[in-house]
């Protein structure tokens, strides 16, 4: 069918308030808004000011009362245990209410924070919805983060309760969570009132009397008692959650998501952008610790009355490169959303796609890729073997939903390899030079979004309005800085080329090299260091540490390198994929002392580079080149 995109985008641009007011009719409100958008509120304005709502009610309760009580809401598929657990909307509501009652009994009230530190288990989604039911603010922390990272988030969010598990499961190993949780609480200045711990059979743990409680026991008691908890009415502008994303200083940024605008945007995207209708099955193969898991495992599919799949497994190795096809076939998945890394892994294990023919993919319509740059060869491989549209799209933790997309729900536009599509309604994308002047079509520059941001985007950072302005708004007045570099072509397609700060993208996970540098600098033999992201065929990017030793350090280089790698993996966690440290004599710097990370990255990636005009000593780049080549990097 012909795409309606251009007409829909023009409708939004002509009257944004009317456009989003119409979209908001898909949401149930206790009280409607005074203004669709109020530019006078907070940093750049707020959406649906004056409205009163509840996200849990819209995601669960209204489907139970509206005829979907027996429809599947959540399918949890664990490749590790071989078990599949299914929840109808009625069953999901029962579990959410019981969990909310357990939290209420621990003193959790509207506005309190709850940290959720869980693996990919159904209890994670249920806990998020239970918090939303109470008007409490959840902050999910990815289970792969180490104790210090968790402690930083505890101190920033100051949670009343932490919900965790005894362990997580990875291919070939069990990851104990309880020692990480205990270590984080010990490190943190803020101490939670209690911890609710899910005991998993793969590795049970000891509970600390008076502080730790068995989550399953608490929930079972409330369920057996027939406990009921009403949905707490909250302002549309009240926070639903805080999700921490890497900051350029190593200090994480708490992205705030509101209730009202978030629901309106996510509900709209399911049909219009992803082309998935109520009752159909959608699968986001991500983790609930990342924004994709928040938006497209938990909230968007449930708000739309779809069935969502939650998968505990990997694209390869659980048990083979056919795992994704098995899940799609078993559960009748219509749309899959994953990172390009997953498909590079599958392609590497099964280059001919021979495993695909063993599964019934007749209900599968669309593959969506995001989280990192999707290379054309991976897209072509997926198109060739799956014979469905492969849609690359682009967004950020801060936006909560796609900025650019090829909106299949409005009719597919021509695919341009290397581009994540065209701007979605709500986004006026511009490309500016460093001085803030708009650039011509096809010219690389700073990708920015004209204010105001649409519904669902962050209104600020948790407890840090000033930092929010400094990080996103001050450099280009009137615009939100994405910190990505790119260009727009003559047809309006965006091409995102690179990050403009020190955030690297490891298998779809945004990680701060600054945070890794802070850890490396703690090694007693390290004088200074730099971490850069280098291209990796499987993960997109991997971190590389360059280290200068203290004068007089007599240790063997190899021993220091191994210790430095261990230090980062212990502090940041395995998610960092930090495996390589190269000891160098000096780091290249500008005359003002700024380390030239971008130039070193180009050398490591064998890209063409020019001598920086501000470099202090050009000979250092020759030293770096030789040191990298000696380790097989940049050859």
From TrEMBL:
The organism's place on the tree of life at top rank: Bacteria
One Pfam family from the record: AMP-binding_C
InterPro entries the record matches: ACAS_N (IPR032387), AMP-bd_C (IPR025110), AMP-bd_C_sf (IPR045851), AMP-binding_CS (IPR020845), AMP-dep_synth/lig_dom (IPR000873), ANL_N_sf (IPR042099)
PANTHER family: ACYL-COA SYNTHETASE, ACYL-COA SYNTHETASE SHORT-CHAIN FAMILY MEMBER 3, MITOCHONDRIAL
Residues annotated as domain AMP-binding enzyme C-terminal: 516-594
Chain ranges of the AMP-dependent synthetase/ligase domain: 70-450
UniProt protein name: Propionyl-CoA synthetase
Record family assignment: Belongs to the ATP-dependent AMP-binding enzyme family.
Every Acetyl-coenzyme A synthetase N-terminal domain range: 5-59
């Amino acid at each position: 069918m012909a795409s309606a995109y251009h007409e829909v985008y023009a409708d939004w641009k002509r009257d944004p308030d009317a456009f989003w007011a119409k979209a908001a009719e898909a949401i149930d409100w206790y009280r409607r808004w005074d203004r669709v958008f109020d530019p006078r509120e907070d940093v750049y304005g707020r959406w649906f000011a004056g409205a009163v709502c509840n996200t849990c009610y819209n995601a669960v309760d209204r489907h139970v009362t509206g005829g979907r009580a027996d429809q599947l809401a959540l399918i949890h598929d664990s490749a590790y245990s071989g078990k599949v657990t299914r929840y109808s909307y009625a069953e999901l509501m029962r579990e959410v209410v019981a969990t909310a009652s357990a939290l209420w009994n621990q003193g959790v009230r509207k506005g309190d924070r709850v940290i959720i530190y869980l693996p990919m288990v159904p209890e994670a989604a249920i806990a998020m919805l239970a918090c939303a039911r109470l008007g409490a603010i959840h902050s999910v922390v990815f289970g792969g983060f180490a104790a210090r990272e968790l402690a930083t988030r505890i101190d920033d969010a100051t949670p009343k309760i932490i919900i965790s598990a005894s362990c997580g499961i990875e291919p070939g190993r069990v990851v104990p969570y309880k020692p990480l949780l205990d270590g984080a609480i010990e490190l943190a200045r803020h101490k939670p009132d209690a911890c609710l711990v899910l005991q998993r059979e793969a590795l049970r743990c000891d509970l600390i009397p008076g502080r730790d409680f068995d989550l399953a026991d608490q929930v079972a008691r409330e369920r057996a008692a027939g406990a009921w908890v009403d949905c707490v009415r909250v302002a549309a502008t009240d926070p639903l959650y805080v999700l921490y994303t890497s900051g350029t200083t190593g200090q994480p940024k708490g992205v705030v998501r509101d209730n009202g605008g978030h629901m309106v945007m996510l509900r709209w995207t399911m049909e219009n952008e992803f082309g998935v209708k109520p009752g159909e099955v959608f699968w986001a193969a991500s983790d609930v610790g990342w924004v994709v898991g928040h938006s497209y495992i938990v909230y968007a599919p449930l708000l739309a009355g779809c069935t969502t799949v939650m998968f505990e497994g990997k694209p390869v190795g659980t048990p083979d490169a056919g795992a994704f096809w098995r899940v799609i076939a078993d559960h009748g998945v219509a749309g899959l959303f994953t990172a390009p890394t997953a498909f590079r892994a599958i392609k590497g294990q099964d280059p001919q796609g021979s495993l695909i023919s063993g599964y019934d993919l007749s209900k599968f319509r669309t593959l969506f890729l995001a989280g990192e740059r999707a290379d054309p060869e991976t897209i072509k491989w997926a198109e060739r073997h799956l014979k469905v549209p492969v849609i690359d799209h682009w967004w950020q933790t801060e936006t909560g939903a796609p900025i650019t997309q090829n909106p299949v729900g409005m009719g597919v536009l021509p695919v341009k390899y290397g581009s994540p599509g065209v701007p979605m309604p709500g986004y006026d994308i511009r490309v500016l030079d460093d001085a803030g002047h708009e650039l011509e079509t096809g010219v690389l520059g700073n990708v920015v979004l004209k204010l105001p941001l649409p519904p669902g985007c962050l209104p600020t950072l948790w407890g840090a309005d000033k930092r929010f302005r400094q990080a996103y708004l001050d450099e280009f007045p009137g615009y939100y800085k994405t910190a990505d570099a790119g260009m727009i072509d003559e047809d309006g397609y965006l091409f995102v080329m690179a990050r403009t700060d020190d955030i690297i993208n490891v298998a779809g996970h945004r990680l701060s090299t600054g945070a890794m540098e802070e850890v490396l600098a703690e090694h007693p033999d390290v004088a200074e260091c730099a971490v850069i992201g280098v291209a990796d065929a499987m993960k997109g990017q991997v971190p590389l540490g360059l280290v200068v030793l203290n004068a007089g350090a007599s240790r063997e280089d190899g021993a220091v390198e191994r210790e430095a790698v261990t230090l980062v993996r212990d502090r940041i966690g395995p998610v960092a994929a930090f495996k390589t440290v190269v000891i160098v004599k000096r780091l290249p710097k500008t005359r003002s002392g700024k380390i030239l990370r971008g130039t070193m990255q180009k050398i490591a990636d064998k890209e063409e580079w020019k001598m920086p005009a501000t470099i202090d000593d050009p000979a250092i780049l020759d030293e770096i080149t030789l040191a990298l080549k000696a380790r097989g990097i940049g050859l």
